[in-house]
Design brief:
The structure holds two protein chains of two kinds. Chain A is mostly helical. Chain A is built from 13 helices and four strands. Chain A has one domain: Orthogonal Bundle (ABC transporter involved in vitamin B12 uptake, BtuC). Chain B is an alpha/beta fold. Chain B contains 17 helices and 21 strands. The chains are: A mainly alpha, B alpha/beta. The interface between A and B is medium-sized, with 23 and 30 residues. The complex binds adenosine-5'-triphosphate and magnesium ion (MG). The site of adenosine-5'-triphosphate has 20 residues of chain B, from helix 1 and helix 14. Adenosine-5'-triphosphate (ATP) binds next to helix 1 and helix 14 of chain B.
């Protein structure tokens, strides 16, 4: 019973927040334009949070996603400058994400360093690499191919629905695709089942024939790949690459997964609830910005909401025992 | 003598009653057995007495005077001491601290822990169990299952100055103990009885209950069925009351012949294990026995790739599997000794736990998993709300059945059973062994370790004896008695009997 209450409490809070903004901002908040805009702003976070869910299912963390996102953007931009074709530069940047993820995986799964420590280390390494390669500057202007940044401005027009001059942003579509793939992976494949088992009891999973090291390695690789993808999306959207532009992603992604965990049956991470978590964070941020609330106050509020959610989840879980 | 009356005890979990209107009177100086099938509500009743789960309803009177019992502190103050079913020791602290856990640590100057006094109290408690040899400074997590159990028992025995315990509650204390250790525990129970304490005792080992208890109360589906003095009932009658049918407390006999096809062959040394020399035929059931920690688990786990055999070893015509994943893929199934730490994902669904080693295709099918879980659950007589229930919410015996269901699924060729029926009730034990017999008739080889010698003698064709890691004998079980087998456990050359 108390589980039900906990599960619905967060959603109820979310509904109240939407209602509050809808009343305070009747003309601008619940409009198709604003919602599409939010979905685009959140697309990078959706990708990072979705792939962060993969490692958090195993009770692991990846703190390096933000600096990996920056690094991937820089790698692509530097290769653009070197006149690589777009597809080659993007593939190389994604490969860097994959390899960085594998490196995290080796530290955590093979060598056995705590994920917190290992990925805190690689956070610094990736961000140092990004600064080194870019020489600490932003790469922008003619160096960034128009097709690349043009993609971020494109989308599927909604004229057929009678919504003139509106489109579903291409980046939102990418994010939804990543979430869909992650959802299939976690909920409908044997690999997903194994991830949850490793999170449930690593020793028991090992004895039951799960290749724990391999599973963790792949999971970290996917998280690295997702972070790199988000970095490229960011670079396309702002038509430039900055060695620190991914910095805010990591905390928001982990917060979104935590918010999602307050809504699931057993308090475990589930990617669709992570999506709800991302939307909550994004909508609160959007609404407060429109109400002209100071950005520092916004950060304080969002932080408090996340803490409240985690406390609720923790307390009700303990009481259930 | 102290009279403890517990009346109208009720408790339901999310609407399903686990205990309904049960009353129980315990008398000082008598051992009262609490019996029932897995999930009948025994541990639930005990948790109410201990104040660790809130009762929906309960009245308690000590010698006619009502007392309140809402928290664990209330129970402790009333002089109740508990040994709960699931092993709950703190692995990262020492044996001595574990024993004193839940008691006030002795202090010096009012605040500093008096470590010397603490160790003294702990070693006194261990001495009562005849286990003075245990290293008080060892980390509890490094101990074997039986030693952990002894710690838990010792913890209930710690003497507290100025406070006499009037009730000891033991929930399946012998499930992880060997015969000799159980005997020591029974001697302790006799002493507590003589002091005038009441004892409430839960066990699925019928013979032991008939031997040491004075009264018995039987529960079925959370309801009270009968309370009688042991002297006026029989094993068959108790089983009938528990299960509602007639079940023999015995083992199904072998019905099919063993083939000559050799499934596994091992010769040589492997770490602590020495002089191994045996083969295993399809359909054969091999027991591995010895004193506690003589290397039984290590021997079984050679087939999971844990440890290397220097010498010759093969399984199904090839080298031994190199890791558990390869083992399961090659038809080896395994039941680990510690179901909670090594076997189950307690906070996950029964379904997820059972199908885990059998996930073969890339995409998973919820419908197929649910179907398999229901079928396996039925085969082992698991009492569950449904496949999505958390395994951790099942009663102890039903958790064991979940581990069993996992191993039996997918027609194994070699079944490794470590203490497989620990905590399983009589009726289900028979059914489970029937399943093992069926598998063996289909050509599955089985290796079994158990601290319950009748189980080894009743199920195995041959038994391999280990003395501190060394294989000293391999005997056919036909005409072998428990007493003969126990003699084999001791090194007769160095300590002549
Ligand atoms: N935390 C819980 N949540 C839901 N149901 C529970 C919980 N704990 C116990 N139950 C249910 O209560 C019933 C009684 O369980 P209990 O542990 O008392 O059985 P038991 O008689 O001790 O069995 P065993 O011999 O297997 O130890 C079972 O059906 C069990 O599934
Ligand atoms: Mg029990």
């Amino acid at each position: 019973m108390s589980d039900r209450l906990r599960q619905s409490a967060t959603l109820l809070g979310f509904a109240l927040i939407i209602l509050f903004f809808a009343v305070r901002l009747p003309d601008t908040f619940l409009t198709a334009r604003n919602l599409l805009n939010i979905s685009q702003q959140l697309s990078m976070l959706m990708v990072v949070a979705a792939t962060m869910t993969i490692v958090m299912v195993m009770n692991d963390f990846d703190l390096s996603v933000g600096s990996m996102a920056s690094l991937a953007g820089i790698v692509a931009a530097v290769l653009f400058v070197a006149d690589w074709p777009i597809w080659a530069a993007l593939s190389a940047a994604l490969l860097v994400g994959l390899l960085g993820g594998v490196f995290n995986g080796i530290l955590v799964a093979v060598i056995g360093i705590l994920p917190f420590v290992a990925t805190l280390g690689t956070l610094t390494v990736f961000s140092g690499l990004a600064l080194y390669i870019s020489e600490g500057t932003t790469i922008f202007g003619r160096d960034i191919p128009a097709e690349f940044s043009g993609f971020a401005r494109g989308g599927i027009p909604l004229e057929a629905l009678g919504l003139e001059r509106l489109k579903i942003p291409a980046l939102s579509l990418v994010a939804f695709a990543v979430i869909a793939v992650t959802w299939v992976l976690l909920e409908h494949t044997s690999f997903g089942r194994k991830l949850y088992a490793v999170g449930g009891n690593r020793e028991a999973a090992h004895l039951a024939g799960i290749r724990v090291v391999r599973v963790r390695l792949i999971a970290f690789a996917l998280t690295g790949l997702g972070a790199a993808g988000a970095g490229l999306m960011f670079a396309a959207r702002v038509a430039s690459a900055n060695p620190t532009q991914g910095a805010g992603l990591m905390l928001d992604a982990i917060a979104a997964v935590f918010l999602g965990m307050t809504m699931t049956k057993r308090g475990e991470p589930r990617v669709l609830y992570t999506l709800v978590g991302v939307l909550m964070l994004g909508i609160i941020d959007n609404g407060l910005t429109q109400l002209r609330v100071d950005s520092f106050i916004r950060e304080i509020l969002v932080g408090l909401i996340v803490i409240a959610a985690v406390v609720v989840a923790h307390v009700s879980k303990r009481r259930g025992k | 003598m102290t009279q403890l009356a517990f009346s109208d005890m009720s408790k339901s979990y999310g609407g399903t009653p686990a205990l309904a209107d049960v009353s129980l009177t315990l008398t000082g100086g008598r051992v009262h057995a609490l019996m029932g099938e897995n999930g009948a509500g025994k541990s639930t009743l005990i948790k109410l007495l201990a104040g660790v789960v809130p009762a929906d309803e309960m009245r308690v009177e000590v010698d006619g005077k009502p007392i309140t019992l809402r928290t664990a502190a209330d129970a402790h103050a009333a002089g109740f001491r508990f040994i709960h079913q699931e092993l709950n020791i703190v692995p990262q602290v020492t044996v001595a601290e574990n024993i004193l856990l839940g008691h006030a640590f002795p202090r010096r100057f009012g605040f500093a822990v008096d470590w010397a006094a603490l160790r003294k109290q702990a070693s006194d408690a261990l001495a009562m169990l005849g286990a003075s040899g245990m290293d008080l400074n060892a980390m509890a997590g490094d101990l074997a299952a039986d030693d952990k159990m002894l710690i838990k028992i010792a913890s209930a025995l710690v003497a507290e100055p100025g406070q006499e315990a009037c009730l000891y509650v033991l929930d399946e204390p012998t499930a992880a103990l060997t015969g000799a250790e159980s005997q020591k525990l029974f001697a302790v129970i006799e002493r507590l009885k003589a002091r005038g304490a009441a004892i409430l005792y839960v066990s699925h080992r019928m013979d032991e209950v008939m031997a040491i208890c004075d009264d018995v109360t039987v529960l079925r589906n959370g309801r009270h069925v009968m309370t009688v003095p042991i002297a006026r009932t029989s094993k068959a009658q108790v089983i009938q009351a528990m299960t509602g049918k007639d079940v023999a407390d015995a083992y199904p006999p072998r019905a099919s012949a063993i083939s000559d096809q050799v499934v596994a062959r091992v010769s040589g040394d492997a770490g602590r294990l020495r002089s191994l020399f045996f083969d295993l035929k399809a359909g054969e059931i091999l027991g591995v026995a010895g004193l506690a920690e003589a290397g039984q688990t290590e021997l079984l786990r050679l087939f999971l790739g844990q440890g290397r055999v220097a010498g010759g070893a093969e399984y199904a015509g090839k080298a031994l599997p190199r890791n558990p994943a390869e083992a399961w893929a090659r038809g080896v199934a395994h039941i680990p000794q510690e179901r909670r730490s090594e076997g189950l994902m307690l906070e996950m669904a029964i379904r997820s736990n059972i199908v885990l080693p059998h996930l073969k295709s890339a995409f998973a099918s919820l419908r197929a998993e649910t179907r398999d879980t229901l079928a396996m659950g039925q085969a082992v007589q698991m009492k569950m709300e449904g496949p999505e229930q958390d395994v951790g919410q099942l009663s102890g015996g039903n958790q064991q059945k979940a581990v069993f269901a996992r191993a039996l699924m997918g027609a194994p060729k070699l079944l490794l059973l470590e203490e497989p029926t620990r905590g399983v009730d009589v009726g289900a034990k028979w059914e489970i062994y029937q399943l093992v017999r069926e598998l063996s008739a289909k050509g599955c080889a089985v290796i079994l370790t158990s601290s319950d010698l009748p189980e080894i003698l009743g199920m195995c064709d041959r038994v391999l004896v280990l003395q501190d890691g060394k294989q000293t004998a391999i005997l056919p079980t036909q005409d072998l008695t428990s007493a003969d087998l126990v003699t084999e456990f001791y090194d007769t050359e160095s300590t002549p009997a």
